[in-house]
Amino acid sequence: MTAQLNPRGDVAVLVPAAGAGVRLGPGRPKALRLLAGEPLLVHAVRRLAAAASVHTIVVAAPIAEVAAVRDLLAPIAPVTVVPGGAERQESVAAALAAVPVGPDIVLVHDAARALTPPALVESVAAAVRSGHDAVIPVLPVVDTIKEVDADELVLGTVDRRALRAVQTPQGFRRSVLAAAHAAAGDALTDDAGLVEKQGVPVFCVPGSDHALKITRPFDLALAEHLLATDLRTRTLDS
Ligand code: C5P
């Protein structure tokens, strides 16, 4: 059954899903790799569509897969699918251009964070709604972090108390994200980086362990385990 998005919602979610995912090993584009029998993108979109504030979802798919991704997502939720670009930033820009008039909050969410709970989508959106122009979900860094040189010699130890690991969805006032993309130069790995360059303060909210980025084969195995456990607890869908 297709999940209906909320026509009165104020949130558009952009899902860059056009990457190759070489770190997962050879195979299909990463967003289409299977997790518990379904593509990562299906898991991600299902949870986005379950967040009550979401009005629109725009997916940037690999150019060769646009039609296949439309067919794949049609039973899950009403989603707009556009061709992605060579860089993540281009894929986000293509998705942003397809957002209809209406939603004032735009979230950018990696398809690779397939188990992100709807509650995290809502908490990022709520922080933007409350007045923060840019919001990122973060986790504390648990490992000791060293800075090294090109020969793997340690240059120093970074104070981890001041560090945060950044997840998605990242949330923005729509006009702020549009201005940052219009002014964008070098490709960055996240959208908050673009608005930081514009001098916009970026606010952190608590992230979720379940929003892990599925990048390497180990992450896929962990995500399979989390899903199997969740059959009992159902925490991933709320
Ligand atoms: O490569 P990385 O894991 O950083 O990609 C993060 C997200 O950006 C993934 O969901 C990937 O599909 C997406 N991406 C994209 N277009 C690209 C490269 C990456 O949509 N050209």
UniProtKB/TrEMBL annotation:
<feature type="site" description="Positions MEP for the nucleophilic attack">
    <location>
        <position position="160"/>
    </location>
</feature>
<comment type="pathway">
    <text>Isoprenoid biosynthesis; isopentenyl diphosphate biosynthesis via DXP pathway; isopentenyl diphosphate from 1-deoxy-D-xylulose 5-phosphate: step 2/6.</text>
</comment>
<dbReference type="InterPro" id="IPR029044">
    <property type="entry name" value="Nucleotide-diphossugar_trans"/>
</dbReference>
<feature type="site" description="Transition state stabilizer">
    <location>
        <position position="23"/>
    </location>
</feature>
<dbReference type="InterPro" id="IPR001228">
    <property type="entry name" value="IspD"/>
</dbReference>
<feature type="site" description="Transition state stabilizer">
    <location>
        <position position="30"/>
    </location>
</feature>
<dbReference type="Pfam" id="PF01128">
    <property type="entry name" value="IspD"/>
</dbReference>
<dbReference type="InterPro" id="IPR050088">
    <property type="entry name" value="IspD/TarI_cytidylyltransf_bact"/>
</dbReference>
<keyword id="KW-0548">Nucleotidyltransferase</keyword>
<dbReference type="InterPro" id="IPR018294">
    <property type="entry name" value="ISPD_synthase_CS"/>
</dbReference>
<keyword id="KW-0808">Transferase</keyword>
<dbReference type="InterPro" id="IPR034683">
    <property type="entry name" value="IspD/TarI"/>
</dbReference>
<protein>
    <recommendedName>
        <fullName>2-C-methyl-D-erythritol 4-phosphate cytidylyltransferase</fullName>
        <ecNumber>2.7.7.60</ecNumber>
    </recommendedName>
</protein>
<comment type="similarity">
    <text>Belongs to the IspD/TarI cytidylyltransferase family. IspD subfamily.</text>
</comment>
<feature type="site" description="Positions MEP for the nucleophilic attack">
    <location>
        <position position="213"/>
    </location>
</feature>
<keyword id="KW-0414">Isoprene biosynthesis</keyword>
<comment type="function">
    <text>Catalyzes the formation of 4-diphosphocytidyl-2-C-methyl-D-erythritol from CTP and 2-C-methyl-D-erythritol 4-phosphate (MEP).</text>
</comment>
<dbReference type="GO" id="GO:0016779">
    <property type="term" value="F:nucleotidyltransferase activity"/>
</dbReference>
